[in-house]
Amino acid sequence: MNIYELISIGLYMVLMILIGLYSYRKSTSNSEEFLIGGRKMGAAVTALSAGAADMSGWLLMGLPGAMYLSGLSSAWIAIGLTIGAFLNYVLVAPRLRVYTEVARNAITLPVFFENRFHDKTQLLKLVSSVLILVFFTLYTSAGMVSGGRLFESAFGMDYYTGLFATTFVVVLYTFLGGFLAVSLTDFVQGTIMVTALLIVPIVVVAQIGGLDTTLSIIDTKNSNYLNLLRGTTTVSVISLLAWGLGYFGQPHILVRFMAIEHVRDIRKARRIGISWMIFTVSGAMLVGLFGIAYLQKFDVETMVVFDASKEKSETIFIYLARILFHPLIGGFLLSAILAAVMSTISSQLLVTSSSMTEDIYKTFFNKQATPQSMLFMSRLSVLIVAVVALVLSLNPQDSILNLVGNAWAGFGAAFGPLIILSLLWKRTTALAGLLGMLVGGAVVLLWVYLPHEYKELYEIIPGFLSSFLTIVVVSVITKPVSAEIKDEFEQVRKIANEAGK
């Protein structure tokens, strides 16, 4: 690693720790502050935090690499995600913010499910919290692996050095400042990401000699690169667009909506968040697309290497950041990848520890826990989850990584329909929610692991539809909900609608 790159990365990590120390002074009185920021997040922090927590290293490596190899036809997944994020802000965010407070101040999704349906069996909370605990621990482990691999591939450092450096910084600021630290670092990380993804393609075009020249070179190499439908089928396009369905069921994104200070701020957060998303995904796609023209014109030898390897093509952002900028600036741009990785790890780490503390420890082991003991357990849970995830990261197995690769679909199918219907349809019942959650998750797993001829269809589609239909059918045939639940639902609907005007 160049000394200037090392300085930039080091300064970035120090900044993250300083934010953790600042947040420690602001969020230490109880577990509600630690796990959800006391519901005091502003619109801008909410928006960029949700975006940064969502994207991970895929935004700066996976998407540019796909665009480099396939051209515009890789844009469908970005289109689907943007539509899904927008609908999440419109359909879910306002009502979830209001309902979690009306439902006896629920600060986690499992507690919200239990309170929303007045579920005295506690099965809804138990099943959903176990799903979060297991899959997000694996998810967190995969993020740690990504951090180690980033240091290994981008900076030429040992995998374990990168793994421990990434884990240490993320765990430290999450342990110290909880949700506030995670949200503020996400805000900074999101700013770094969008800045990097806007700067690089602009400089590439300037180096090549203008946009027309850039597009002409791309078209000369392969005219299909600028074809949005190149190599696609109806099923593949639908599958890529369906990635947007996952947003409705992602706990680490939904918790941002629960933490915003005022429901009326949701509209402002939506404008900021969707604008950020459009700029970042567009910038990421242009990095890969314009990278084709840059290599074609200036570095054919490297182009041959990138054309032959998906793994190499995913480093196109790293290559351009290093070749076009002074190492000090290049190091700042490369820190955007680390920011994407860290923001996702910290969010998943906090959600997992909150499930362990609020949904399992308080419910089944210490119902009379004091605010101080809950705060202690929250921080202890961060350490426990981090240690387990780190151990899994030491020798990553394909089976674990493959499972985590399907977690987006699993959460989207298991939680997404239940979130939507619990907020928009008062007739939804607790039994229907429980069965829908189990059916959605099961269908995703069966679709992935059982042999069949429809593998091209993304598993979230059958999982989401199965869960949605199960909830509707079971709700219709079971006992109607109580008048108390109907009153709560109407109260939430009126407040959310009023705030949306």
Automatic annotation (TrEMBL):
Xref: CDD domains: SLC5sbd_PutP (cd11475)
Transmembrane segments: 6-24, 45-69, 75-94, 123-142, 162-184, 191-208, 228-248, 274-296, 316-341, 376-394, 400-424, 431-451, 457-477
Catalytic activity: L-proline(in) + Na(+)(in) = L-proline(out) + Na(+)(out)
Localization (cell): Cell membrane
InterPro entries: Na/Glc_symporter_sf, Na/Pro_symporter, Na/solute_symporter, Na/solute_symporter_CS, Sodium:Solute_Symporter
Membrane topology: Multi-pass membrane protein
Record flagged with keyword Ion transport: yes
UniProt-listed Pfam families: SSF
Record's keyword terms, sorted: Amino-acid transport, Cell membrane, Ion transport, Membrane, Sodium, Sodium transport, Symport, Transmembrane, Transmembrane helix, Transport
Record carries keyword Cell membrane: yes
Function text: Catalyzes the sodium-dependent uptake of extracellular L-proline.
UniProt cross-references to PANTHER family, sorted A to Z: SODIUM/PROLINE SYMPORTER-RELATED, SODIUM_PROLINE SYMPORTER
Family according to the record: Belongs to the sodium:solute symporter (SSF) (TC 2.A.21) family.
NCBIfam families for this protein: Na_Pro_sym, sss
Identification of the protein by name: Sodium/proline symporter
Gene behind this protein: putP
